[in-house]
């Protein structure tokens, strides 16, 4: 197995702009709809990056001032532009943007990691080119986390002794190109008293798997994001399943998208399970299940 042999999957990106006119993108699967800028109810105690709350078909929707959240200049018309309504990590929110450009289709191998020192680096997970123009892929998880961090529930002390012993046998590698999402998973593992290895890309994960193969730290549980640049979680899983040494490695795909929508594709790729971010208790239960499989207690 080589980290250079990436298996490509198709990806649809929604392109949009803020005041600067630079092209940015978000995975189309994370977009629920696009609507004109609605009237907002201002909440005096809300986060400064939240413009207000809109009512969408009877439901409240928090509207994020994306320009302000990522350190860009505010839009010239604070009431103009449109909203990209996203549905990720078990919640909906509206992103206020200048304009939506178009939808483009590409391969995951077309998305490259952000170059060192790139503008908005802390809020992008990758870059690509469309019509010879640079496009920055937004790290929407980091934007949302900066406003409403996902709660990390401390593991209760009365964790079943058998489960605790099982978890201790898990040698875990967590793979995620979003630093915020990676930290959330690592913190959950620390609350469980577990050490884990981490990687920021599928290529880095493969290199680490090869490095640890045959050592006391050999990985037996992989927890991987799906939406990653260059090589996504599906491609990573297929590559591992085609390699004899990793054919039986337990793979949990951890995604900000709806896990129901991704479960069929995850199974087809060879993943053992798929989970929507971010629920610390549910991740804990998934890891206990993984440890049972690794120890031959479950199929």
Please explain how this structure is put together.
26% of the residues lie in helices and 31% in strands. With 299 residues, the protein is of the alpha/beta class. The protein has a five-stranded mixed sheet with strand order 8-1-2-10-9, with no helix packed on it. A five-stranded mixed sheet has the order 3-6-7-5-4. Helix 3 (161-168) packs across helix 8. The mean pLDDT is 88. This is Chemotaxis protein CheV. Keywords: Phosphoprotein. Residues 10-149 form the CheW-like domain.
Summarize the entry for a quick read:
This protein is of the alpha/beta class and 299 residues long.
Q: Looking at this structure, what is the CATH superfamily of the largest domain?
A: CheA-289, Domain 4
User: How is the biggest beta sheet arranged?
Assistant: 5 strands, mixed
Roughly what percent helix? 25-40%
Tally of distinct domains: 2
